[in-house]
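Sharing a chain and its predicted structure for anyone who wants a worked example. Both blocks are below, sequence first, tokens second.
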Amino acid sequence: MGAVALCLSWLSLTACERRPAGWSDATHGENATPNYDVVFPRERVITLDIKIAPQDWQTMFDDMTEMAGGFGRGATTNPQQGQPQQPQQPQQGNAELACVGKAAGDACTVGAVVGRCVVGGGVGQLVCAAEQPGRGGQGNPGGGLNEDAEFFPRTPVFVPSTVSFGGLAWQHVGIRMKGNSTLSNSWSRGVYKLPWRLDFAEFGDSHPEVSGQRFHGFKLLSLASSSMDATFQREKLADDLLEEAGVPVGRSVFARVFIDRGAGRQYFGLYTIVEVPDHPMLGRVFGDDSGNLYKPQGRAARWVAFDRESFDRKTNKSSADWSDVEAAVQALNANRIDAASWRAGLEAVFSVDSFLRWLAMNTTLANGDAYGGMAHNYYLYGNPRDQDRVHWIAWDHDLAFGGFGGGFQVVGGPQGPVGGPQGGIGPNAGPASTSSASVFHDGDSAEWPLIRFLLDDPVYRATYRGHLADIVSHVFVPEQINARVRLRRDLIAPYVLGVEGEQPGYTFLTSPAAFDEALLGSSGLMNAVTRQAQTVQEALRTAR
């Protein structure tokens, strides 16, 4: 069927005839084959240009200001001039501004949520985390923190943009700010290197000439800003290692990002572009993209009970059938007295081995910004090729390698999900003390039943141990990983430092030396990799 005839089946002929200049089915079309070699080349830095009309840029900033207060109102210096300024009074809706002038443990509010100030922003910076029902807060003086709370009341608004790449342009591409703690950190500090989400089909209804638009076969892209990672490598390194371990995860690539918001082309910094779990990835990993994809978030995302509101479906949105994920949650929480029957019931609806593989890899990565520490940052997929069994998909790894409070303690250890005074999630945060017990999650409570119930079962604990042993023998090998880190340091350094590097107001680096210190220093990434491998190996020798 020709291009015009195909268009007639779902658009008007007029709309087809006015496809933007440069449009081709292979690069822009809805049925384009996903070109991973072009969008996610393995060891290259790509360049992405984004143009946003001034009024649309202002719309995004007005929307964020309404939710989080003024841009940069938590900063102590002017991001563009470097001049000292006094922090203004915090406004509701911003977890960091709510703790300005307070000490750790002080009461605070984020919107209507009451909590306490904890370490969780930049280096030594405090954020407001809500009291967790049942473990602290009103009527329960224990002071537990609600890891399920979001810093913003809603998703930021999309505006149209033009994206240019490789000599081609994509028109009317939706762009919005994205993220939770990362966005809060960037916004409150007044750094323009904000995290972004691109949706190439967002404005297809209002602009039918780009209906069904794709970017070399991809509809969605996530632009991670490394706002709390002075190495710039954590996201991509973790993504690569997870894939090499056989864990479902999106691809990622380093990218120089330039944005023109009406005042000319400006370098916004070195980003990591991440493949969002969607049809291309589902087809690549599972061989079928027709199943239900979920992005869980909220209290029920811990799997303590099933609640549709906590399992936001990203595919098949017109369907009212949540039976796949509901069955998995119910099977997990079924009676475990007959362990063999419980395991059989769970394995019939949930890929337990795949989850344990992810848990072993995520633990080895010391990634606390994940299930077990936060009730978000993962996807679920009901795989039609596996009788609709639910599979785990890894997501969001910019705080891996101890970046979310340091060390293994952050995943179920006594420090809890936010980390202790030795940690923090700032760009230069170092690892806290590690523990063999935390490798096996012995401190995790039944608030995280996917971890607690599975690792309390001798059969699944043995399976988990086997995955750990395989990972530290064949995937998480410090000599190989650190050689890769050094090569990537040389690859990205020209776009971080120097004339072509990041500039004040568009960077989170405190100094050029901070870049190499975060990679090569005593508390840097390379030493963290070595220590993490040693800790897992020690746990395998000593833990039951």
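Comments welcome. The chain has 16 helices and 14 strands.
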